[in-house]
Predict the 3D structure of the following.
Amino acid sequence: MKKSKLLVLISMVTIFALMITACSNSNNKANQPATNEQGNDEATTVEITDVHGTVTVPVNPKNVVALDNRTFETLADWGIKLAAVPKGVMPADLPYVADESVLDIGNHREPNLEIIAAVEPDLVIVGQRFATFYEDIKALVPNAAVIDLNFDVSESAATPGESLVNGLKNSTLILGKIFDKNEEAEKIVDAFDKAIEKVKSSYNGTDRIMGVIVSGGNIGFSAPGTGRVWGPMYEIFGWVPALDIDNSSSDHQGDEISVEAIAQSNPDWIFVLDRDAAISTATDAVPAQDVIDNSPALQNTKAVKEGNIVYAPKDTYINESIQTYLELFENIAEALSSK
């Protein structure tokens, strides 16, 4: 009988000790940093700085809405799943467009913002065409992190060239922090910097440059400094413009300068953005190269005679990612250095 009582007492002591240990472990766990899903002691949030200030963003968020044309290709390359996107202003070959599980909020002219609320996002990436909806989106999804990467119009934006370069680099590095792709982000930024230096070293400092936008069979002037895509590059690379005008704009079809005036400037180089190649669904849309080749006014220019013409990647108008500009810069450097 005494032996039985002793065993009961030992059992009670053992159970009590286990209870104390469990409580202790629980308290210790509560005082430790939050862990990620894999159980590693890694940060679950990161602070980034967008055009509005500091924002706390979850690392590797599950439900993501992306609206910024500069981010789509980067996110696709990194295999990031998206919940909703504006499919109408995205390159058709990106995986999100054909994926029926990715909802379409429509283009920036008539977006269905309610879809953003419906997917209950952890993160919404705003920028470029959708920047004007920033406050509306924040009101729709108050529990989500909403970041605006439209650095071109931020208070810190400097000249057009600096804004383009820094905007692309900052956006890429921010996405790297959010999606735990820092190494990948730094690698492409480094390649981007090197491509810029290649263009600078390939340019002779005297050739006169003309940037144009081809849309609807018409050739529009892309003004130095302000013109879409080409405008900032005059500053970045120190290009000498073949033609400069007062009161120029960043109109998506180019400024209304006659093709005769463009021809009279007799540029050494013509750089071409084909707007229709990116957005037109018409089978009879005329490729920019055909428009340039069949323009009587341009045939006597030095650029056409010597074949000094560079075309931006076909999807540039709606794919203004760092990858697009990297490809474009490398093409320009190769063309310039070959002469």
Remarks:
- The CA atoms of residues 90 and 318 lie 6 Å apart.
- Residues 2-31 form the longest helix (30 residues).
- Confidence is low (pLDDT under 50) at residues 1-40, 248-255.
- The longest strand covers residues 208-215.
